[in-house]
């Protein structure tokens, strides 16, 4: 159980960091931009990780809107994030259900 939780945490961190490169200043200047209060903004490395994490968990970050190609990357990040979360919930539910069934079988056998 804890192995899967640890693996899930590592996958989430790697995913967030990987997508943060799309929002960093070097990439976004060539392929799109971010807008806040009708101003073009750039994100530093830590800010892009923060933006990616917010996009993963809540789909919004302080009213910042991606424009250009970054819109597509944001949509892809949200879509894949939901698939990862749903898959993790399904795997964990399956593991917990199998453990409960195993305990029930052991209890019936010991009666």
Summarize the structure in words:
With 111 residues, this protein is mainly α. Helices cover 76% and strands 11% of the residues. It has four helices and three strands, in the order H-H-E-E-H-E-H. The chain has a three-stranded antiparallel β-sheet. Strand 1 and strand 2 (39-41) form a beta hairpin. Helix 1 (2-23) packs across helix 3 (45-57) and helix 3 packs across helix 4. The two termini are 28 Å apart. The relative contact order is 0.14.
Nutshell version of this structure?
This protein has 111 residues and is mainly alpha-helical. Helix content is 76%, strand content 11%.
Task: Produce the secondary structure layout.
Blueprint: H1 2-23, H2 25-31, E1 32-36, E2 39-41, H3 45-57, E3 65-68, H4 69-110
Antiparallel strand pairs: 1-2, 1-3
Helix pairs in contact: 1-3, 1-4, 3-4
Task: Give the strand tally.
Answer: 3
Tell me the strand percentage band: 5-15%
Biggest sheet architecture = 3 strands, antiparallel
Q: What structural category characterises the helix and strand content?
A: mainly alpha
What is the number of helices? 4
The SSE order reads HHEEHEH
What sort of overall outline do the alpha carbons produce when their principal axes are compared?
elongated
Rg calculated over all Cα atoms: 20 Å
Strand adjacency order, main sheet:
2-1-3
- Between the first and last Cα atoms, what is the distance in angstroms? 28 Å
Helix content: over 70%
- Low-confidence segments, given as residue ranges, are none
Mean pLDDT: 80
């Amino acid at each position: 159980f804890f192995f899967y939780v640890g693996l899930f945490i590592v996958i989430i961190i790697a995913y967030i960091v990987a997508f943060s490169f799309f929002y960093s200043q070097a990439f976004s200047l060539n392929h799109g931009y971010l807008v806040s209060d009708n101003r073009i903004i750039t994100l530093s490395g830590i800010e892009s990780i923060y933006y990616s994490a917010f996009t993963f968990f809540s789909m919004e970050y302080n009213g910042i809107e991606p424009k250009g190609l970054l819109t597509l990357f944001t949509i892809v990040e949200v879509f894949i994030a939901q698939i990862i979360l749903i898959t993790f919930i399904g795997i964990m539910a399956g593991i917990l259900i199998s453990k409960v069934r195993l305990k029930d079988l052991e209890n019936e056998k010991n009666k």
